[in-house]
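re: that complex we talked abt at group meeting.

here r the seqs, copy pasted straight from the sheet so there may be weird spacing, ignore it
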Amino acid sequence: MTGARAGSQPRGRGRPAGGSDARDRILAAARQEFAAKGYDKVSLRGIARTAEVDPALLHHYFSGKEQVFVSAMQLPFDPADALPLILAGPIEELGERITRFFLGVWSEPEGRGAFLALLSSATTTPAGAALLREFASDALLSQVAARLGVPDAELRVEAALTQMLGLALGRFVIGLEPLASLPTDDVVRLIAPTVQHYLTGELP
Amino acid sequence: MTGARAGSQPRGRGRPAGGSDARDRILAAARQEFAAKGYDKVSLRGIARTAEVDPALLHHYFSGKEQVFVSAMQLPFDPADALPLILAGPIEELGERITRFFLGVWSEPEGRGAFLALLSSATTTPAGAALLREFASDALLSQVAARLGVPDAELRVEAALTQMLGLALGRFVIGLEPLASLPTDDVVRLIAPTVQHYLTGELP
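got the structure back, here u go
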């Protein structure tokens, strides 16, 4: 980020000169659009309209909708960058790589805060649930399913995600003991085999 | 419940005559106490004081703190009644009985609403998280752990709970497809073996 942090009030109407003020306006407009419409129905053009900026400026700051979402929601990583690294490597260790990455993100206060906000919104309003469903399907689940490349890949990835989400709830949100204080390696040994089983194991 | 439904405004100060009005005041006081203090630190005496009723009246309506909580939060079942039934029967099918019961409760609108309120509160405020942690530990986890009767029973039951919580999130809250539309029996076949593994399987 460059320049001084802009205030929360947008400047007067009309086409902005750009700069960090415009970027902040784009992110505020994006949060408003995502909260109202979910993920799938939001367009970069619509965000630009709400932010009252030229659509070209949006493309100057962001590579696409996913990156706008990641910035607007202050997610600690962009799935478009992180997933290829996680998906590369032996498929029989994919469960462990996913579990480790997920635990790492939730261990950091910023990551935890951003994901907790998504979960809080998803458990509080149907719009929040739709937003998480559509973003997770688009940016996460479909990529992992494509890597698996089997007919029931979607259900496998969703089963793995339920285990990851529940782990986050139990360890980091609800704080069940002894699970919450267990060393990360022990949590990986306990949970990663389940994730691996859902991804590549023999299912009924 | 007997008698007409009382309004939300308590009557004038002083010792009440009892009846459904007093019961509603007790439940309102209980919600207030649980929200402020979590589960463990709340006492029946404290609820009676906040509700301005004689503690004996509380014991007239409720068998204990757990039943007050279940009524105040409108949970669709009392763990004290349901758990003995689930825990009875062959231990090698405990994972399936737990998964089926859990899916059944979340399938009913009332059950879903009550548990969603607990999850929403747990993901929104630390007090909400503490309330769910303390109630789950007290009324659910410790009972199941006692049934297992092995040294690492607590961690086993918590691991099983993470899978149950994540399943509820994925299937009923976020609504991931195809998981959300999968017939119950297929969900049980997919998830129950994981629950059983955590409870009685060979862990690292």
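couple things i noticed - Residues 126-148 of chain A form the longest helix (23 residues). The two ends of chain A are 50 Å apart (CA to CA).
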